[in-house]
Amino acid sequence: MSQQNPIFIPGPTNIPEALRKAVDMPTIDHRSPLFGRILHPAIAGVKKVLKTEKGEVFIFPSTGTGGWETAITNTLSPGDKVLATRNGMFSHRWIDMCQRHGLDVQVVVQEWGDGVPADKFEEILTADKEHRIKVVLATHNETATGVRSDIAAVRRALDNAGHPALLFVDGVSSIGCYDFRMDEWGVDVAVTGSQKGFMLPPGLGIVGFSPKAMAATENAGLYRTYFDVRDMAKGYAANGYPYTPPVGLLNGLKLSCDMLLEEGLDNVFARHHRIAEGVRRAVAAWGLKLCALRPELYSDSVSAIRVPEGFDANKVVSHALDTYGVAFGTGLGDVAGKVFRIGHLGSLTDVMALSGIATAEMVMADLGLPVKLGSGVATAQEWYRSTAQEAQARKEAA
Questions:
Q1: For residue 175, which of 159, 192, 324, 345 is within the disulfide window of CB 3.0 to 4.6 Å?
Q2: CB-side neighbour CA atoms (13 Å) of 259
Q3: Helices marked H in 142-199
């Protein structure tokens, strides 16, 4: 793989040079006031990206998976009932984690390519008259299938059922890429990481807790030590951590939030949509289909592209890497070998996206798939050209 080429996996994403330099900093005394001047602005920036004024943000030396464990261990007790859907690899992994922690998980199985079924959730929650379900899990963007679910609809399902369950949302590949409204959607725990929308290396598990979730921490019976948000809150109050913090990554997160907010969150979301739409139009020009079943489910951060039946999609990924030094994402779980994924999130431009589209075309042509060279590129070019002036005007107005 050439380090000069952009990557097109769904994370970790391309790292802007400014963020790379921010992470690469001299050692400081993390128990000195200087650390507080890095920590607290980073927390404040994340709160703005999450669109929360009521919630508390905790940043762990971890990843999104650690964020999941933070969510469940701080709020639940052994045997508690959880409602979730299995519609992709990452929703599956969250379910598996809950089961390993001794939780009773009611799983609604969906086709991989479909979204979170808010209507089915509402039926189940309405029938739960004793309110045994303590938490509803929802994956905002299923990275394995390129599916975005409607979190506002899940909140409406809870409200329509008059159910007091907490709402936990996996926003690992959505937060910082497209609109996330923690307070408005009534999200009780939002989970993300540093290596996707925040454009940093892996290493930070980022969670937002609502006041309702914070109240649940007082009676939760699952074991927690490293991921105890109460200990973290005490550390924050003293400008520190309960253990050694990842200072460089936090410094990068502080700058990352500044960059996102300076661009303007609406502009960040519009940029992701515009680039994603160019990729989707290229896919259509190739005569291929996305894994996502319907347009309203299409992700603006990753496209999972179905290959013709009988063809191994892993060949696309390996040939791109070996021959052209470009990284695409493989299919995972139920769609392994059936799709390859183009990540279009984080630090990306339309010009960079075109290089990925062109590489995918060359690879598929090399492998004998019926894809005409230039077809997807030309279609994406037309889209990017037709929307370039509008994008530039939006940027200048920010």
A1: 192
A2: 20
A3: 151-161
